[in-house]
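User: My collaborator sent over this chain with a note saying "see what the structure looks like." That's all I know about it. Can you take a look?
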Amino acid sequence: MQVQQKSTEEIISQLALMQQEISELKIAKIALDAQTQMLEKLIEMAETPELEHVLNVTLEQVVDISIQVTGAESSYLVLFNEHSVIKNKIFKHLYLDSLEQQNLIHRVLEQEYFTWVVNHPVVTAIPDTFPYKRLKILPECPPFARSVLSVPIFKHGQLLAVLTLMHSQAEFFNTTSVSIMEMMAKQIALAIDYARFYGQLETYSQALKLDLEQGRQIQQNFLPQPVPGLTGWEFASFFQPARQLGGDFYDTFLFPDGSIGLVIGDVCDKGVGAALFMGLFRSLLRIFSEQTFSNANISPTQAVILTNNYIAQNHSELCMFATIFFGVLNPSTGLLTYVNAGHEPPIILRSSGVRQRLHPTGPCVGPTYNVHFQEQQIQIEPGDIILGYSDGVPDARSPKGDFFTEKRLLSLLEEPAPNAIALVDRIKKQLECHISEAEPFDDITILAVHQLAPPS
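Assistant: Without extra context I'll predict from the sequence alone. Here is the result:
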């Protein structure tokens, strides 16, 4: 009989342990489900960069999920800044409309309550608020806060927020509620911390976008205006950076003797760094061209050599370089004197239909000090078009990754173009059709110069 009684006591004890384990597992399951919900929301926000007011959305989700897992009727979440000053407030009551909730949001809890929370930095269930004067939530102590579950949210020892769950029934929150919110507190801290960081990142991103847009406008302003009052010649161009800022550039400028400088270049890489060097290359070519002119000898070779040596001597550690075609055109005679420093060979479209290429006469500009560049000349006749472009034209990619190719470009030149503008427009339209919705692969630059044929 004694053995049977002992066996019964052991069974009862084991059943009690099993019930406790089941209860703990249920609590863990509820907390895990809530944490999973919060994690899914974080991932959703991370994949939706255009989402505004991320912090407020996160706080509202914390409030909703906390009400869901504890059965609370209302919830009040207060977020503090790094100086422990209240920054955000979210109040939700299941049985009040939005206007009533808005009217209560600044009156629900008083500062004395938060002082009490700081002195009790653990999840605490207050079974009945009536005996606690400091917890009287409104002067009339509204019935929706008869029992309270206080959840302080800490991160690295700093109080981030206080989540207060409320119910109109006394002794509503129990040890299970406390256990669930203890498990959720770290996840809530992570969510709030992430949202804060995301908000700061969004602010920085917007500032960066503004800076880049200003940079884009400045770079666009670098592009030359049409050469004024030049009878018998026509200029057309197209410039499209792969990003907001690009490394391609072109330039046309007038020398005092009436000659025209023609430049098309491509700085290695893309983006801000390439754009800065693009401005440097452009400025150096202009400065050194003016110097050579003052010496009564307009020499594209000398300007390119001086530019090359400056970059190689002062910026060699950055390994930046550019391919450059630089020509000096005499509009009276049609003589083009040029240097092609590793650039895509411009095409001369003769009025007779014959095509000629202006192949490289030296290496790219910048990597090596004091290299040799050869100068060459070609005669441009009435009706001829000089077409220069960057490698972004043949390398333009379709949504499937197919290149535009030089072969396709050349096929567009088989049909005679009436003028430079029509030719550039033809190439531009084909490029746009080819690229379609694809992400731009490289900067695209086109410059066309047309010697008009005399009227018949």
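A starting point for your reply to your collaborator: The chain has two domains: 2-201, 218-451.
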